[in-house]
Design a protein that fits this description.
Layout: E1 11-15, H1 19-30, E2 35-39, H2 42-51, E3 56-60, H3 68-77, E4 83-87, H4 92-101, E5 105-108, H5 113-128
Parallel strand pairs: 1-2, 1-3, 3-4, 4-5
Length: 136
C-alpha cells in the first residue's frame, strides 16, 4: 500500500535576526510541509515580500529595520497577507500599536511553538476560507 504524505502548499516568510531562532522556526514549519522563505531583518523581509508570493509572515519585531513602522510598511506591501508578530520586549501598548499597524496576531517571547503553529493554521484557514487539511 502506498503512503501519501499531505503537503501544505502555503508559503510562510520567517523573519528573525537571531539565526538560531530563525533556524528553529524554519525546522518546525518546514516539517509541517510549509514552503519557506527567510529574512534576517526588516529590509530583507520587505524585499522578499515584494519579490515572492507569500501566504503568511511570521516576524520578529525588535531587529534591524523592525518596529511598528516596519509592520505598517509590510502590511501596505501585502495587505491580504496575515502577519504574526513576536517580540521579547513587548507590553500591552506595543501589542495594541502593532495590531493597529496591520498585524493579525501578537506573541510575547518565549513563544510556545504549538500555539504559534495553531495560530498559523487558523490564519491561513481564515485567509483561504477552508482548513488546509480539508483540501487534500
Amino acid at each position: 500500500m502506498l503512503s501519501v504524505t499531505k503537503q501544505k502548499t502555503a508559503t510562510v516568510l520567517i523573519v528573525e535576526d537571531d539565526g538560531e531562532m530563525r533556524s528553529l522556526l524554519c525546522d518546525e514549519f518546514g516539517s509541517e510541509g510549509y514552503q519557506l522563505r527567510e529574512a534576517k531583518d526588516g529590509d530583507e523581509a520587505l524585499k522578499v515580500a515584494q519579490q515572492s508570493e507569500v501566504d503568511l509572515i511570521l516576524t520578529d519585531l525588535r531587529m534591524p529595520a523592525g518596529g511598528a513602522e516596519y509592520i505598517v510598511r509590510l502590511h501596505a506591501l501585502a495587505p491580504h497577507c496575515p502577519i504574526i508578530v513576536m517580540t521579547a520586549f513587548g507590553d500591552a501598548g506595543l501589542r495594541a500599536e502593532v495590531l493597529r499597524a496591520g498585524a493579525s496576531a501578537y506573541f510575547d517571547k518565549p513563544v510556545r511553538v504549538a500555539a504559534l503553529k495553531q495560530k498559523v493554521e487558523a490564519l491561513l484557514s481564515d485567509a483561504r476560507g477552508t482548513r488546509y487539511e480539508d483540501r487534500f
